Amino acid sequence: MYKNIEEYDVVGIGFGPGNIALAISLEEKNFTNSILFLESNTAPDWQAEMLLDGSDIQHNPLRDFVTPRNPVSRYGFLSYLKSENRLFEYLNLGLEYPLRKDYARYVRWVARQFDKWVSYGEKVTSIELESKYGNHWIIKTSLNRTIAAKSLSMGPGRTPYIPPSFENKKSSRVVHFTNYTSALSRWTSEEKLKSVAVIGNSQSAVELVLDLSSRFSDVSIHNLFRSYSYQLKDVSPFTEQIYFPEFVDEFYNLGIEKQKEVTQRLWRSNYSSADHDVLHNLHVKIYEQKLDGREYIHLHNMADIQSVEETSEGIKIDYQSTLTGKKSSISVDSVILATGFRNLGGEEHQELFPPLLNKVAGSLKRREDNSLLVERDYKLVGENCFIPPVYLNGLCESTHGFGDAGSFSLLSVRSWTIAESIEQYFCN
Questions:
Q1: Which terminus of the chain faces fewer neighbouring Cβ atoms within 10 Å, N or C?
Q2: Is residue 163 a contact partner of residue 314, using CB atoms and an 8 Å limit?
Q3: Residue 183 has pLDDT above 60, yes or no
Q4: 365 and 373 in contact (C-beta within 8 Å)?
Q5: Contact criterion met (CB below 8 Å) for 224 and 319
Q6: What DSSP state is assigned to residue 239?
């Protein structure tokens, strides 16, 4: 049936924050079964393309892999700083949020302690359910390996959202912001960069505009977005209670329509908004450019993009103002899409299931909107059949709330919940 098949009790797809936190939980539970994590990247690099000078994270640093659940764990952020002999230097900075570069080093520091469980540079190419092999998940990889897993933790990250007007554009001059640093290096090596368009009005969009303006003194930067202005992120301590473990239970027990309503009401706590510091910095930067008589940052608000075309002069973007109805166009050398990611769900711009589950989606139970039914412990449910445990680790915002929206906020709690479920499965 399968030749040279390898068998593991637990297989994790991806070794980003979700599965790193799971590795910690399994170790702290003294879980002795066989474990393997498959990571397509060659190293545990977190947000590698957005480690911009001066950029910081957007959560309390103690909401790390483990501290809220186990403050004495050796895998906490403070333990990392101590190991680097930088704890007092960090405390002396007086920063509310750590530099993103520092937190990325923390992520790598933790991940490297689990190298024995991880295969880097190995991409999962397919996942199938094989009852003939004792109800295992059969995983095939880019290294021509076939792996049988008794349980799966899906942590591949979310799919980048590409707006319809850019979906079919194969140009190397149009990239999602998750490829920003690499693309910028390539563009500047090919020719002198004269103009760039940033699409979106999120935190990432504002950071990109600021970063471009600090790197280049003579590049025209165009920021196009649909709203009237940038929106200030809702960081009220009352709103931030959505990142409490108790809120997960409240949200999970709501009906699907009420979940969607609550998500919409709380949207600015995580999406289409930016922190005060970056908005202030951008406003000052634009003002200063006016004083100097060299305005290189151009904001195009209320812009509804009508068409995108690659021409001999670059990327031509036609758009219409939803305020005045006026039609305009710009031509730029390159475009960066700061347009976020697709969440799981049945709404527009969402996806019903992670693409890697395409071959087995028919065996999975759905909700009323045809999205996947996810249990409280993040486990998927079989449709009229038994399936081995498969967990969505960091993909369950539509069912479990904003704490699952690619945030560190509840990593420690979620990973423990999944680890407990895995442990119970193998104890039965």
A1: C
A2: no
A3: yes
A4: yes
A5: yes
A6: G
